[in-house]
Write a structure and sequence with these properties.
about 260 residues; about 40% helix
Amino acid sequence: MPALGLGTFSLTGDACIKGVNDAIAMGYRHIDTAEMYKNEDEVGQGIKDNGIDREELFVTTKVWHTHLKKDDFIKTAHTSLQKLKMDYVDLLLIHWPNSDVPLQESLEALMELQEQGKTKLIGVSNFTMKMVEEAARIAPVVCNQVEYHPYLDQSRLLETVRNHGMKLTAYSPIGKGKVMDDPEIKAIGEKYGKSPAQVTLRWHMQQDDVAAIPRSSNSERRKQNLNVFDFELTEDEMQTIFDKRGNERLINPEFAPAWD
């Protein structure tokens, strides 16, 4: 899984098609979508329009928490593939946990789809530490996609993920733009000629077992987000950003689990 990918939440219509095509053209090889985003058709079309070989891309999609019963899960995943115009995805995730459906049942659906070759890898999203532990006992999950940025401390969750040989994929990695007004992150960026967003994405990239999927509808920002591999933060600079970690959760719907 490429460490830096393109998030597509809220990208729809022609903007999504052109955005995905544009992102691939500038070098993105990791594209993240989901059933709930209602843009799998457009994501698939953007990939098709680019003409890139399917094997060169890492594509992730996710099944919504209302479709986690086994038969519904498998049917939903097949529908996603049809919309994406693909025979398989590289990673298929449970988008959010659902306490009304046994995790075993949902993971069995994921494993069956993996055995069928409909997904290469399986994982989860928005799982707590306890849920990650439970999932790891049942199935070969490879990642937990969660909110992670300088203002949300996910250190304990990251440790749990690492202990099970998984990756943490960060969504909302720049805190919905909050880092742009952070004076300390701005100062670090000035040293390297980089924006606060680029500094923050570099902070993600320098953490073991962490990937990030920033979303942008702007071509220039997408290019900037990808341009974070030509500099390196010092240990002190990394710590300056780590020191900001708190409990500022930006994504917390009513159906979210009790975070631990």
